[in-house]
Specification:
Elements: H1 3-31, H2 37-49, H3 53-72, H4 77-101, H5 110-133, H6 140-151, H7 156-179, H8 187-215
Amino acid sequence: MDHKNVTIRRLVLYVGGLFLLTLGVSLSIQAGLGVSPVSSLAYALVLTSGLSIGITTVLANILFIVVQIILNKRIDIKDLILQLLISVVFGFFMDSTLFLVQLLPPPESIVLRCVYLIISLFVVSAALIGYFTAKLPLMPYDALTYVISERFKIKFSKAKIMSDLLNVIISAAIGLVFIQSFGSIGIGTIVAAYFIGRILGWMISRYQKALQQWVYQNE
Protein backbone atom coordinates (compact mmCIF):
# COMPACT_ATOMS: atom_id res chain seq x y z
CA MET A 1 0.00 0.00 0.00
CA ASP A 2 1.40 3.35 -1.08
CA HIS A 3 0.37 5.52 1.86
CA LYS A 4 2.72 8.33 0.84
CA ASN A 5 1.05 8.84 -2.55
CA VAL A 6 -2.40 8.63 -0.96
CA THR A 7 -1.43 11.31 1.56
CA ILE A 8 -0.07 13.56 -1.20
CA ARG A 9 -3.27 13.21 -3.23
CA ARG A 10 -5.38 13.95 -0.14
CA LEU A 11 -3.32 17.08 0.48
CA VAL A 12 -3.74 18.16 -3.15
CA LEU A 13 -7.52 17.78 -2.84
CA TYR A 14 -7.55 19.57 0.51
CA VAL A 15 -5.40 22.56 -0.42
CA GLY A 16 -7.02 22.77 -3.85
CA GLY A 17 -10.42 22.70 -2.18
CA LEU A 18 -9.48 25.52 0.18
CA PHE A 19 -8.17 27.61 -2.71
CA LEU A 20 -11.30 27.04 -4.82
CA LEU A 21 -13.45 27.82 -1.80
CA THR A 22 -11.81 31.23 -1.38
CA LEU A 23 -12.13 31.80 -5.14
CA GLY A 24 -15.85 31.12 -4.93
CA VAL A 25 -16.23 33.48 -1.98
CA SER A 26 -14.25 36.15 -3.81
CA LEU A 27 -16.53 35.84 -6.84
CA SER A 28 -19.57 36.28 -4.60
CA ILE A 29 -17.97 39.37 -3.03
CA GLN A 30 -17.33 40.79 -6.50
CA ALA A 31 -20.96 40.10 -7.44
CA GLY A 32 -22.02 42.44 -4.64
CA LEU A 33 -25.28 40.63 -3.93
CA GLY A 34 -24.36 39.25 -0.51
CA VAL A 35 -21.92 36.51 0.47
CA SER A 36 -22.58 33.00 1.77
CA PRO A 37 -23.37 32.59 5.49
CA VAL A 38 -19.97 31.01 6.25
CA SER A 39 -18.15 34.13 4.95
CA SER A 40 -20.64 36.75 6.09
CA LEU A 41 -18.94 37.60 9.40
CA ALA A 42 -15.49 38.02 7.82
CA TYR A 43 -16.86 40.29 5.09
CA ALA A 44 -18.94 42.28 7.59
CA LEU A 45 -15.68 43.00 9.43
CA VAL A 46 -14.09 44.11 6.13
CA LEU A 47 -16.90 46.60 5.51
CA THR A 48 -16.77 48.02 9.03
CA SER A 49 -13.05 47.97 9.78
CA GLY A 50 -11.25 48.53 6.49
CA LEU A 51 -9.03 45.49 7.09
CA SER A 52 -8.34 43.01 4.29
CA ILE A 53 -10.60 40.00 3.82
CA GLY A 54 -7.63 37.76 4.64
CA ILE A 55 -7.10 39.35 8.05
CA THR A 56 -10.80 39.40 8.94
CA THR A 57 -11.12 35.76 7.86
CA VAL A 58 -8.41 34.83 10.36
CA LEU A 59 -10.09 36.94 13.06
CA ALA A 60 -13.49 35.36 12.40
CA ASN A 61 -11.95 31.88 12.57
CA ILE A 62 -10.25 32.73 15.87
CA LEU A 63 -13.70 33.65 17.20
CA PHE A 64 -15.08 30.30 16.01
CA ILE A 65 -12.22 28.54 17.82
CA VAL A 66 -12.93 30.46 21.04
CA VAL A 67 -16.62 29.44 20.87
CA GLN A 68 -15.53 25.82 20.40
CA ILE A 69 -13.39 26.05 23.54
CA ILE A 70 -16.26 27.58 25.51
CA LEU A 71 -18.71 24.88 24.42
CA ASN A 72 -16.24 22.02 24.93
CA LYS A 73 -15.01 23.46 28.23
CA ARG A 74 -11.50 22.28 27.38
CA ILE A 75 -8.51 23.20 25.25
CA ASP A 76 -6.79 20.79 22.87
CA ILE A 77 -3.52 22.62 22.10
CA LYS A 78 -2.65 20.44 19.09
CA ASP A 79 -6.09 20.92 17.55
CA LEU A 80 -5.99 24.65 18.37
CA ILE A 81 -2.66 25.16 16.62
CA LEU A 82 -3.80 23.16 13.59
CA GLN A 83 -7.01 25.17 13.22
CA LEU A 84 -5.07 28.43 13.54
CA LEU A 85 -2.65 27.29 10.83
CA ILE A 86 -5.52 26.39 8.50
CA SER A 87 -7.12 29.77 9.20
CA VAL A 88 -3.94 31.62 8.23
CA VAL A 89 -3.63 29.64 4.98
CA PHE A 90 -7.29 30.25 4.20
CA GLY A 91 -6.89 33.97 4.94
CA PHE A 92 -3.89 34.17 2.60
CA PHE A 93 -5.89 32.44 -0.13
CA MET A 94 -8.76 34.89 0.43
CA ASP A 95 -6.56 37.93 -0.16
CA SER A 96 -4.93 36.27 -3.18
CA THR A 97 -8.13 35.16 -4.92
CA LEU A 98 -9.92 38.45 -4.26
CA PHE A 99 -6.98 40.25 -5.90
CA LEU A 100 -7.24 37.94 -8.91
CA VAL A 101 -11.02 38.30 -9.19
CA GLN A 102 -10.76 42.08 -9.06
CA LEU A 103 -8.66 41.91 -12.25
CA LEU A 104 -11.78 40.67 -14.07
CA PRO A 105 -14.27 43.11 -15.65
CA PRO A 106 -16.35 44.65 -12.85
CA PRO A 107 -19.97 43.43 -12.86
CA GLU A 108 -21.70 46.74 -13.57
CA SER A 109 -25.01 45.25 -14.73
CA ILE A 110 -27.37 43.11 -12.68
CA VAL A 111 -27.05 40.36 -15.29
CA LEU A 112 -23.26 40.17 -14.92
CA ARG A 113 -23.56 40.30 -11.14
CA CYS A 114 -25.92 37.33 -11.26
CA VAL A 115 -23.48 35.49 -13.55
CA TYR A 116 -20.68 36.04 -11.02
CA LEU A 117 -22.95 34.79 -8.23
CA ILE A 118 -24.00 31.65 -10.13
CA ILE A 119 -20.39 30.82 -11.01
CA SER A 120 -19.45 31.27 -7.34
CA LEU A 121 -22.07 28.70 -6.29
CA PHE A 122 -20.57 26.03 -8.55
CA VAL A 123 -16.98 26.90 -7.60
CA VAL A 124 -17.78 26.69 -3.88
CA SER A 125 -19.60 23.37 -4.38
CA ALA A 126 -16.67 21.93 -6.33
CA ALA A 127 -14.31 23.13 -3.62
CA LEU A 128 -16.33 21.41 -0.90
CA ILE A 129 -16.13 18.05 -2.69
CA GLY A 130 -12.34 18.15 -2.60
CA TYR A 131 -12.26 19.52 0.94
CA PHE A 132 -14.55 16.83 2.36
CA THR A 133 -13.22 13.95 0.22
CA ALA A 134 -9.69 14.60 1.50
CA LYS A 135 -10.89 13.81 5.05
CA LEU A 136 -8.33 16.07 6.67
CA PRO A 137 -8.84 18.50 9.60
CA LEU A 138 -11.88 20.74 9.35
CA MET A 139 -11.74 24.52 9.25
CA PRO A 140 -12.87 26.25 12.47
CA TYR A 141 -16.38 27.05 11.21
CA ASP A 142 -17.09 23.44 10.24
CA ALA A 143 -15.46 22.15 13.43
CA LEU A 144 -17.71 24.50 15.43
CA THR A 145 -20.77 23.04 13.71
CA TYR A 146 -19.71 19.55 14.85
CA VAL A 147 -19.15 20.85 18.38
CA ILE A 148 -22.64 22.39 18.44
CA SER A 149 -24.09 19.11 17.16
CA GLU A 150 -22.39 17.08 19.89
CA ARG A 151 -22.86 19.60 22.70
CA PHE A 152 -26.60 20.01 22.19
CA LYS A 153 -27.27 16.46 20.91
CA ILE A 154 -28.77 17.55 17.60
CA LYS A 155 -28.25 16.37 14.03
CA PHE A 156 -25.36 17.90 12.12
CA SER A 157 -27.75 19.29 9.49
CA LYS A 158 -29.69 21.19 12.16
CA ALA A 159 -26.47 22.37 13.79
CA LYS A 160 -25.36 23.67 10.37
CA ILE A 161 -28.57 25.65 10.00
CA MET A 162 -28.10 27.08 13.51
CA SER A 163 -24.49 28.05 12.81
CA ASP A 164 -25.35 29.71 9.50
CA LEU A 165 -28.33 31.55 10.95
CA LEU A 166 -26.34 32.83 13.94
CA ASN A 167 -23.51 33.94 11.67
CA VAL A 168 -25.91 35.83 9.41
CA ILE A 169 -27.66 37.52 12.36
CA ILE A 170 -24.36 38.66 13.90
CA SER A 171 -23.09 39.88 10.52
CA ALA A 172 -26.29 41.81 9.84
CA ALA A 173 -26.17 43.35 13.34
CA ILE A 174 -22.55 44.49 12.81
CA GLY A 175 -23.53 46.08 9.50
CA LEU A 176 -26.57 47.87 10.95
CA VAL A 177 -24.64 49.22 13.94
CA PHE A 178 -21.53 50.44 12.12
CA ILE A 179 -22.57 51.25 8.54
CA GLN A 180 -26.37 51.37 8.83
CA SER A 181 -26.92 48.62 6.26
CA PHE A 182 -27.00 44.83 6.14
CA GLY A 183 -23.53 44.98 4.58
CA SER A 184 -22.44 41.44 3.72
CA ILE A 185 -26.01 40.09 3.81
CA GLY A 186 -28.16 40.19 0.69
CA ILE A 187 -30.14 38.11 -1.78
CA GLY A 188 -26.90 36.30 -2.64
CA THR A 189 -26.68 35.05 0.96
CA ILE A 190 -30.12 33.45 0.70
CA VAL A 191 -29.35 32.02 -2.74
CA ALA A 192 -26.06 30.53 -1.48
CA ALA A 193 -27.67 29.06 1.63
CA TYR A 194 -30.37 27.38 -0.48
CA PHE A 195 -28.49 26.25 -3.58
CA ILE A 196 -24.95 25.31 -2.49
CA GLY A 197 -26.15 22.24 -0.61
CA ARG A 198 -28.22 21.12 -3.58
CA ILE A 199 -25.46 21.71 -6.12
CA LEU A 200 -23.01 19.93 -3.81
CA GLY A 201 -25.35 16.94 -3.53
CA TRP A 202 -25.59 16.72 -7.32
CA MET A 203 -21.81 16.97 -7.71
CA ILE A 204 -21.17 14.36 -5.02
CA SER A 205 -23.45 11.86 -6.77
CA ARG A 206 -21.58 12.35 -10.05
CA TYR A 207 -17.97 13.01 -9.13
CA GLN A 208 -17.06 12.01 -5.56
CA LYS A 209 -16.69 8.30 -6.33
CA ALA A 210 -14.18 9.10 -9.08
CA LEU A 211 -12.26 11.40 -6.73
CA GLN A 212 -12.16 8.71 -4.04
CA GLN A 213 -10.89 6.16 -6.55
CA TRP A 214 -8.15 8.59 -7.63
CA VAL A 215 -7.09 9.25 -4.03
CA TYR A 216 -7.02 5.63 -2.90
CA GLN A 217 -6.18 3.92 -6.20
CA ASN A 218 -2.92 2.33 -4.95
CA GLU A 219 -3.98 1.61 -1.40
